[in-house]
Protein 1
Amino acid sequence: MSPRKSAADTRLTRRRILDLGLVLASAEGLEGLTIGRLAAELGMSKAGVIGHFGTKESLQLAVVDAAAEMFVREVPERARGVPRGLPYLRAAGEAWISYLERELLPGGCFFTAAAAEFDGREGPVRDAIVRMSSFWQRELRVNLWRAVSLGELPADTDIDQLLYEFVGIMLALNHFLQLHGDRQAPARARRALERLF
């Protein structure tokens, strides 16, 4: 086997592990992610799975990164090219609703579930989850400020309050979709965002 083919096979195997890990962790939590289960479901040895990551924590961190890639692709990237400020916020809000509505992961929003699982803990996995959340909130906050500076929102807008409510709408959407199976939740989230802005 050529080194090029071997490297491509290694990348493909790692991707398969991460894709399955993301699906399992979204529904069962990052702590429920085990090397043995991944190996069994992929028809691999435990050593074959661990060889790609080294430790369970490294696997969890790689799954968090894979979840971040998916979120960025499905939400901020879909709003790319839209003018900054209120148009961007509306486009990002619609992309976020669509992301949850399309049920790309069986457990809904990976970061909502992971935040609840790790919010009372310390360590690298929690830190990675916090970094992703902070990155996204910073992006939203910049656009809220931009909307105020352009006069799209009132000059006295409480940016932190608006950000809190924006994120809160999405958390509620995930809750009603996942826990209650409420198919009307996306329409409610859209109405809530329209009122917010």
Protein 2
Amino acid sequence: MSSLKSMRTAEVARRAGCSVQQVRNLERDGVLPTASRTASGYRSYDEIHLRSALAYRALAAAVGPVEAKKIVRALHRDPLPEVLALLDAAHAGLDAERADLRDAREAVRVISREPMEDVRGSDSMSVSELASALGVRPSTLRHWDTERLVVPGRDQRGSRRYTPSQVRDARIVHQLRLAGYRVEPLRALMPELRRSRRLEDVASALSARDAGITARSRALFDGTAALSRLVSLSAFAAPEDRSVVG
């Protein structure tokens, strides 16, 4: 049974830190169970609804609103192992991002310290040569050119030609993209990197990415705790679990 008195929509919204309309939308989308109605037709919510909203809010900060709705809906409708599988996937996704970030930090550290002095014009690369070296499609390099991430020169025939310093820029962009950086932040970062050639510039960007992953991990931790509280309510326990939580 609920340990909280019945609540109106506005009170759930206030306690969960969202708007009244969002509470209604979450109920409509199955994230909150259908509310009971008073004799006068007003929605009446209880602890299950509040905890569902709190779990959604935390999970949305961790994995985004679409995935958060999927997880909380699953808790209402599906066997517990299916819910745990969704959480495992969320944790695995963040772990993969951390691994990519570690790889990017090491790669950028090495790449950024490569000497660029005393290079020869013959050391430059064509689009197809650089694409092969990076393991990407030539169209990816053309997209980076269009987005002003790595802008090559042109040879006498008008074909793209990458100088050694531009090859290094492409390698840095490639690693940062693998680490999850979107094009827009990279568009702002790369001109500064080209001007300063400082390792600190890229390290600072990667640190910001690290902080973002940490914040999402904490949100996932909080969201998982909120889900655990929901499972502890007998209304949510699977039949095989009722003897434990009852």
